[in-house]
Amino acid sequence: MDAERADTALDRWEQRAELPLFYASLVFLAAYSVRILAHGVDRVWREIALAMMLLMWLVFLTDFVVRLRLSGRRLHRFLRTHWLDALVLLLPLLRPLRLVKLYTTLQRRRDQPVLSLYARVIVYAGLGAVLLGWAGALAVYHTERTAPGATILTFGDAVWWVCETLTTVGYGDVTPVTAWGRIIAVGLMICGLALLGAVTGSFSSWLIQVFTREDERRPPEDRRPPGASS
Amino acid sequence: MDAERADTALDRWEQRAELPLFYASLVFLAAYSVRILAHGVDRVWREIALAMMLLMWLVFLTDFVVRLRLSGRRLHRFLRTHWLDALVLLLPLLRPLRLVKLYTTLQRRRDQPVLSLYARVIVYAGLGAVLLGWAGALAVYHTERTAPGATILTFGDAVWWVCETLTTVGYGDVTPVTAWGRIIAVGLMICGLALLGAVTGSFSSWLIQVFTREDERRPPEDRRPPGASS
Amino acid sequence: MDAERADTALDRWEQRAELPLFYASLVFLAAYSVRILAHGVDRVWREIALAMMLLMWLVFLTDFVVRLRLSGRRLHRFLRTHWLDALVLLLPLLRPLRLVKLYTTLQRRRDQPVLSLYARVIVYAGLGAVLLGWAGALAVYHTERTAPGATILTFGDAVWWVCETLTTVGYGDVTPVTAWGRIIAVGLMICGLALLGAVTGSFSSWLIQVFTREDERRPPEDRRPPGASS
Amino acid sequence: MDAERADTALDRWEQRAELPLFYASLVFLAAYSVRILAHGVDRVWREIALAMMLLMWLVFLTDFVVRLRLSGRRLHRFLRTHWLDALVLLLPLLRPLRLVKLYTTLQRRRDQPVLSLYARVIVYAGLGAVLLGWAGALAVYHTERTAPGATILTFGDAVWWVCETLTTVGYGDVTPVTAWGRIIAVGLMICGLALLGAVTGSFSSWLIQVFTREDERRPPEDRRPPGASS
């Protein structure tokens, strides 16, 4: 733990890069959506979208390398404490997750209270599930749209399929039929399960916390320890 | 925490308004059900139901404004501690949740023991799931009933669909086919997952508590710490 | 808690009644199964089964009343500490749950170690889920067998349906189509969710406990606090 | 607990047998896969695979007996502390689980940090789910492939079915129709639920741990206790 002291140069870089990187991630997400969804329009738009995606990814890579250098650590040790950054580099669609960090940074700079522990886990994991689901819907739509015997025919179907998959409801009215569609589906199920498990687990813990605090707010002569009477 | 001292005026208002507001919420729920389910009968009943809903919502709004004023705080800070009241104002169908608070208040006034922590979470979250499910069944029934190719044809189908959705079983024998039906379904899945996760999580914690207490009830010479022997 | 001292007379009754009541519960379960499954054979067997069920239920009622009297408490207070007994009286199919208590009693009498806390929760909740599922399969099979358009046609189908329902997988290849079948299904889903949630939650806690203990078993110079290195 | 002192002879055996046993388990898994999947090729390969499976199982049995002897305990007490070894003997497909132990042993020998508690539970339970799923896919494929009316026709279908079953999504586009296929499915559902419950539970706990640590890393003048502000 003693190796985790705040490096001043690294901190300054992170503070300055925060907002530009956030806008870059929005551009990346929009470009990816355009590339997949605009299959009916002029081909040039899709090429522009691809170019934007590569450009933004180079921005993310540059940021990662700069931070690795500024930290003065070796890659192996840097990854141990910055696993989220590396994950975001590999799956840039998760980039907007940093939105939450941005909010936390801004609130702290203004000396305002940040969200509670459970609320932050819920927001992080929930936002992660939304972004994962959006990317999954795009990818599955791209794969299944033209497959013979497919049931996922519109992007709306793909979004509906993602929602019933991530919540593990799984009606089966629309399902992927191609091999690649199913591989994406399995990845989505596993990540979705973990993320939504974190969301519901934290919600449950938070609800119990709220009720416990309500108990503590009562005047002492009226208070009983939680669970004393059942 | 020091800002949360009981304001006397606010407390008095809350105690007096408790029962009337509870009856108002029952009227609201009944009016909404009449509005959706009574599509075969005279149109005038549905208009009366709509009028009742608006009236009851005005009652809830008045109560919210009065309490905001009595608290002497600004909206931003008031919302932080009274998030449940604001939620109930937006989704008045959740209003009967206050039934549990009413029970707690009554029990405490009579100096009788209240439910344990986990039991209250289970009752709150479970009742929330029931009300959410009822409202969802009404809304989906209203949307799907006349859609071409729909499988949700009766209100019984809608209730059955809500049950298999909230528990994430999802047989898929009845599913929404319209865009609005699916949007309602997604909202239902997400809220239902969180609420039922809280219910099962609390049930599990409560069961472990019961077993731990059983261990502690044994005579000391016979007692072993939990988990000491496996 | 001070009211819960062991009453000697009650204790003696419970120790003596344990084994006979356990056999009675097995007879009850068998009689119920015979009543539902033996629809092809002579009618007289089903009548005998019904008679056995009533007789066994009277035995359970007698035991409950005797224990209520021996405890010297009023019904209200007795229920608070003996909720499991009352539940078992209403749903006698859950009776074999006492098997675990029997095992605990026997192990303790022989001065042998009992199962750990989580193991007992898993066994209790898991056994409860099995019994609930068995009873649910019988009831749904009875309701659906002769319904028009039914997909649950054999008892094997009913058991398969119960398994996919309790685990919330819900393929939808066999589903109840009658109103009563669906009502039983909803009851099964809710109870099953809670019980299996308790099983998986306890399994998870137990696994973490096992791993924590493994950490503690290491020689001290080699030990690191759990989680210190990620 | 005092009976669990490290036996030197047993320790030495375990250290020496670790790597050979790991390779043996890989051979076993490969042989089982060959036996099931190679139904189109020459019969002799499947006989060789069966022979390899029996041979490897004898290796596992020998290891178990040697360790039982070296421990100097009776079978009953040995099982209590080595339950994982006994389970692995009965279900040799779970053998590669020891891979994690191997990693832990190697890391500790090199004085490098091991994975945190939650990470190890996730890896163990996740790897167990993968192996269980692989074995289940093989077994169900073997059973269903030639059944009339089957929907699981290729090994790819079987793997897809296992994924949607273990995550409890259950679309129902492919389902087992034979009695044996359904029995394997039920076993898979129950074990899968428990293992994936452990994975998502640990992931959730680990995420909360990560966020808590992030709170603690802030400079003290800026730090607020988690949850203080909601």
UniProtKB/TrEMBL annotation, chains A, B, C, D:
Transport among keywords: yes
Keywords: Ion channel, Ion transport, Membrane, Potassium, Potassium channel, Potassium transport, Transmembrane, Transmembrane helix, Transport
Keyword Transmembrane: yes
TM stretches of this protein: 21-38, 44-66, 117-140, 183-208
Residue ranges constituting the Potassium channel domain according to the UniProt record: 136-208
Gene Ontology MF term list: potassium channel activity
Main location: membrane
Annotated localization: Membrane
GO cellular component, one term: membrane
Topology of the protein relative to the lipid bilayer: Multi-pass membrane protein
UniProt-listed InterPro entries: K_chnl_dom (IPR013099), K_chnl_Slo-like (IPR047871)
Pfam families: Ion_trans_2
PANTHER family: CALCIUM-ACTIVATED POTASSIUM CHANNEL ALPHA CHAIN, SLOWPOKE 2, ISOFORM D
Identification of the protein by name: Two pore domain potassium channel family protein
Biological source species: Streptomyces marianii
